[in-house]
Amino acid sequence: xxxxxxxxxxxxxxxxxxxxxxxxxxxxxxxxxxxxxxxxxxxxxxxxxxxxxxxxxxxxxxxxxxxxxxxxxxxxxxxxxxxxxxxxxxxxxxxxxxxxxxxxxxxxxxxxxxxxxxxxxxxxxxxxxxxxxxxxxxxxxxxxxxxxxxxxxxxxxxxxxxxxxxxxxxxxxxxxxxxxxxxxxxxxxxxxxxxxxxxxxxxxxxxxxxxxxxxxxxxxxxxxxxxxxxxxxxxxxxxxxxxxxxxxxxxxxxxxxxxxxxxxxxxxxxxxxxxxxxxxxxxxxxxxxxxxxxxxxxxxxxxxxxxxxxxxxxxxxxxxxxxxxxxxxxxxxxxxxxxxxxxxxxxxxxxxxxxxxxxxxxxxxxxxxxxxxxxxxxxxxxxxxxxxxxxxxxxxxxxxxxxxxxxxxxxxxxxxxxxxxxxxxxxxxxxxxxxxxxxx
Length: 440
Hints:
Blueprint lengths: L1 E8 L2 E9 L10 H8 L5 E6 L5 H4 L12 H12 L2 E3 L8 E5 L2 E5 L2 E6 L6 E6 L13 E5 L9 E3 L6 H11 L3 H5 L5 H22 L2 E3 L11 H8 L18 H31 L4 H12 L11 E2 L5 E2 L2 H12 L3 H4 L25 H9 L14 H6 L1 H18 L28
Parallel strand pairs: 2-3
Antiparallel strand pairs: 1-2, 3-7, 4-7, 5-6, 8-9, 10-11, 12-13
């Protein structure tokens, strides 16, 4: 069994693989396959209960000579060595201990391997003496890495909960007087300035009035028990293993039963509410399609896609986000050096005797209002981070200002710089063997 956690860190994406090898005749891990899957990125941590014995990690606890090493144990030892993985667990660590009659069986089967690139980041890897699970025959191992994880602090703006009147009041306070603008013929510089002021006003109104929450908050369901957390953090616990904090208040077994009953009742209520919602959804004319789509969305893997390290034909590796962005830019847009500072679009030379067709360049407020009302919701904003929902919220205040900007743009044949910048989102192509290329 194998599970992988992807963590974005200051040194790039980290992959933490948790492995369990039952090592039973009918249930055994294919070691070469496991090694191949868990050592590809170059920043891997492979840890878990391997249930295998070898002198390289068992040390003096290994019983017998090298000829006693099983084929799976040799495959793990040689596979990790060939993949440049380093054993972080001190050889001979007492990771497993149980009584068998009058004798005590001690072995080292819970291991931690790290990529060569992470070797110097390992501050410690040792058996955690303050064991919060004293009844288990396996003792926990704590590995401390000197690596800072990147905290995702991106926000989700809750536009549907925004006070529209307050939003428009803040927006109006950021914009110039409208009466003066309506009687002024703007030149290109003034159009540029007004576009920037409108965008700045929208940003200020959003930051001031729109409530937010974390786009990817930390899991809140079933938090760790406070006593267990105190033990793991080493606060106020006895130093001798396997002592734990003495129970206080309600006995632990009663607290456990009560919590299980509370969780079961909450789960039952959630299931009943969900069934009622699906039943009501299915009663509509197109209910079958809606329910089918809901099922499709719910069964999608809840995995945040991370772009792996990129590699160019010269075997250069791009690890950080900034390096990846620059590499993609250079790989997909070959003439980037010529276009980097271009602010005008070159038009073809037109014949002076060409036929000129009439075009209505007038713009009325009702047309702008119609366009704003028909903006699609839940679309990604541009670099100014002004979403369509914000423009729709400020429709009453924005409409006359945008009408003035659009009208003068048509009259001047000018396109403001503020409207020229867009975001390009890279999506992975499906079913690729590798995504290390910028074009994948």
